[in-house]
Design a protein that fits this description.
The chain is built from 17 helices and 22 strands. By secondary structure, the protein is α/β, with parallel strands linked by helices. Helix 2 packs across helix 3 and helix 9 crosses helix 17. The longest helix is centred in the last third of the chain and has 18 residues. The relative contact order is 0.09.
């Protein structure tokens, strides 16, 4: 058995573009990723489809696992020979208990490496135009945690307000929103000037970022009135009055067609990431409502020698296929003489990233048009006598549309149905998603529609606020089975088509 190892990996502070290259490398090559609520879930898109994903919670007042259980889990997976990424928000050593996990692994004799991440203590204030140090205003910065701590067996807020109130420079408080009232009162009682500038930056570096600037004495009251919640960074000090932001950039953002519109993206983390990028260009605020996870079927690839066409109906299928090729040590020479069909531009782009190009793509990006168009192409080859009667292999999700096998069977064209992956439901994430009511909710697959409405039914919830958006015809047909309400279907299947449909 190979020797396992663990990478304590900083996931950064929200914007996936701030992930380090070293962290990206670790995610792409790991066997298991152990993540919590403070790590951006969209980072999971870079883990391999068959990578084991384990959610361990770690929100204030709600831990899916105790710290001792997380330590034991890391040891267990490493001893099983796994390469493990312990994905944490910000930097693992900045109030992330990364040191405790490293020590537990070290004590167990397991190789461990810490991969630093960009901490929200510095990056989030900066994203709001607040430098934590500035000549003439702050020569230093103090970073503390505002979470409740155990002291003498009793839970309580354990901060030395007398010392904090006397400090010069900037005070940055992480994880302090649940105790903001106590923090403000404690600093004021210890003699801090009530007019000291203060700020709260919520969901920093993301599309949902909001910033409140006021004075210390008003900080809690205004944050409460304006519904500022976790995750947020609290900044107290003279620098909090600064606003180092481009006015030109802000004016351009105000002109965006979806400014102020909220969109919930269901599906897989990878789909949510791509949709978020498309919608962010138009100013929309995207809520991550992804609760589906791509799982490889675990079986070897079929005998490709008997196949003439490889048919992909999603970028997920392409990624899982290429991962299987690498795992089975098959190079691109096994694809010699074969042609590839894809459902649309997104799938074609996933293919092209590996130097492969589609020979057929329908003008309308849905399964029905893919099946009809490809069948017509194959029948033309048959008429010309240049078709070798090899099968078309459907490399797609389990429980996919019946249109492909039905149409090929009707045309008498041999095919092989190979469900290369399945979309599994992450129950905790689905439970969180169905409680949200953004202006629009986007579905990227029929499977996502079914899973969402099953979750609503189980919880006894009715969403009457959000308008539903489907990526394509098949997704829309499934939605009709669950609701009589009007909904939107993208004219062109794909994230850009969805964005245009919402506009």
């Amino acid at each position: 058995m190979k020797e396992g190892k663990v990478y304590l990996t900083g996931g950064g502070c929200g914007d996936t573009g701030l992930l380090t290259l070293r962290a990206l490398e670790a995610l792409r090559s790991c066997d298991t990723v152990v993540y919590d609520s403070l790590a951006p879930e969209t980072l999971l898109q870079w883990a391999a489809p068959d990578c084991e994903r384990i959610y361990v919670g770690k929100r204030y007042g709600s831990h899916a696992m105790k710290q001792s259980e997380i330590n034991a889990l890391l040891v267990d997976r490493a001893r099983a020979g796994k390469t493990v990424v312990r994905l944490k928000g910000g930097d693992p050593y900045v109030f992330g208990r990364g040191g405790e996990e490293f020590m537990a692994l070290q004590e167990a004799g397991i190789y461990c490496e810490e991969i630093p991440g960009i901490s929200s203590a510095i990056a989030v204030p900066a994203a709001a135009g607040i430098p934590v140090t500035h000549r003439g205003l702050a020569a230093g910065v103090t970073v503390i945690t505002g979470t409740a701590a155990e002291e003498n067996g009793r839970a309580g807020l354990c901060l030395d307000f007398d010392t904090l109130a006397r400090l010069e420079g900037t005070l940055v408080i992480l994880m302090g929103m649940h105790h903001l009232e106590e923090i403000v009162k404690g600093l004021l009682a210890a003699g801090k000037d009530p007019d000291t500038p203060g700020a709260v930056v919520m969901q920093g570096t993301t599309e949902g970022q909001r910033c409140l600037r006021t004075k210390l004495s008003r900080l809690y009251e205004e944050a409460f009135q304006q519904e500022f919640t976790s995750p947020a960074v609290i900044v107290i000090g003279a620098v909090a009055k600064l606003r180092l932001l481009s006015e030109c950039g802000r004016e351009e953002k105000e002109k965006l067609s979806l400014s102020g519109v909220t969109v919930g993206a269901t599906g897989t983390p990878h789909f949510t990431e791509r949709l978020s990028a498309a919608l962010a260009k138009k100013g929309a605020k995207v809520w991550d409502m992804s609760f589906l996870e791509v799982r490889s079927n675990g079986s070897p690839l079929p005998d490709l020698q008997s196949c003439g066409w490889l048919v992909f109906t999603s970028p997920n299928g392409v990624r899982v296929f290429l991962d299987k090729m690498r795992q089975e040590r098959k190079d691109l020479r096994v694809l010699w003489g074969k042609r590839i069909a894809v459902i649309g531009a997104g799938t074609a782009a996933a293919l092209e990233a590996s130097g492969l190009y589609a020979a057929y793509m329908p003008k309308v990006y849905d399964v029905e048009h893919l099946a009809q168009g490809l069948a017509a192409e194959i029948l033309k080859e048959r008429e010309k006598g240049c078709w070798d009667e090899k099968k078309a292999v459907f490399l797609r999700a389990k429980h996919g549309s019946e249109a492909l096998p039905r149409i090929f069977a009707e045309k008498g064209i041999p095919f092989l149905e190979y469900p290369i992956y399945d979309l599994e439901i992450q129950e905790e994430k689905r439970a969180a998603a169905i409680g949200k009511e953004p202006d629009y909710i986007v579905f990227g697959s029929a499977r996502g529609v079914r899973a969402y409405f099953e979750g609503l039914g189980q919880a006894g919830i009715v969403n009457e606020k959000s308008r539903f958006v489907c990526i394509g015809k098949g997704c829309g047909e499934e939605l009709k089975r669950h609701t009589a309400r009007d909904f939107i279907t993208a004219r062109e299947a794909g994230v850009e088509g969805v964005a245009e449909a919402i506009v």
